[in-house]
């Protein structure tokens, strides 16, 4: 599934323009602890997970990758793996543009869906 928890902590931290040192101080953690959470080398204990969720005002389910959206008006559930794929898509402008262009045409969007399923099957087989 990847490191959904770490990716989301980092995303929320960067969204608020906080360095690891600044966030660690606010959460009464060491910079090393926070770095290990963000890189997936360690997982926070339940109390620390709650503290992180409270600080960012997000549900723990969001941090754990059980829900993709934070807004109540669109509570779509996706897997943590899909969250990471979407994140990578957004970080690659060329790939994002290709997918966007394919989705502009319904015929092409069906092709894109078939390609997605093929990639997903290939990934699960390896």
TrEMBL record:
<protein>
    <submittedName>
        <fullName>Transcriptional regulator with XRE-family HTH domain</fullName>
    </submittedName>
</protein>
<dbReference type="InterPro" id="IPR010982">
    <property type="entry name" value="Lambda_DNA-bd_dom_sf"/>
</dbReference>
<dbReference type="InterPro" id="IPR001387">
    <property type="entry name" value="Cro/C1-type_HTH"/>
</dbReference>
<dbReference type="Pfam" id="PF01381">
    <property type="entry name" value="HTH_3"/>
</dbReference>
<keyword id="KW-0238">DNA-binding</keyword>
<feature type="domain" description="HTH cro/C1-type">
    <location>
        <begin position="9"/>
        <end position="63"/>
    </location>
</feature>
């Amino acid at each position: 599934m990847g490191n959904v928890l770490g990716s989301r902590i980092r995303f929320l931290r960067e969204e608020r323009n906080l360095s690891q040192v600044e966030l660690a101080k606010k959460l009464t953690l060491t910079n090393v602890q926070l770095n290990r959470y963000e890189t997936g080398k360690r997982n926070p204990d339940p109390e620390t997970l709650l503290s992180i969720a409270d600080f960012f005002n997000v549900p723990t389910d969001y941090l754990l990758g059980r829900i993709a959206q934070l807004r109540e008006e669109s509570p779509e559930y996706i897997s943590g793996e899909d969250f990471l794929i979407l994140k990578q898509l957004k970080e690659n402008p060329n790939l994002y543009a290709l997918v966007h262009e394919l989705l502009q045409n319904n015929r092409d969007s069906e092709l894109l869906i078939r390609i997605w399923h093929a990639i997903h099957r290939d990934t699960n087989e390896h």
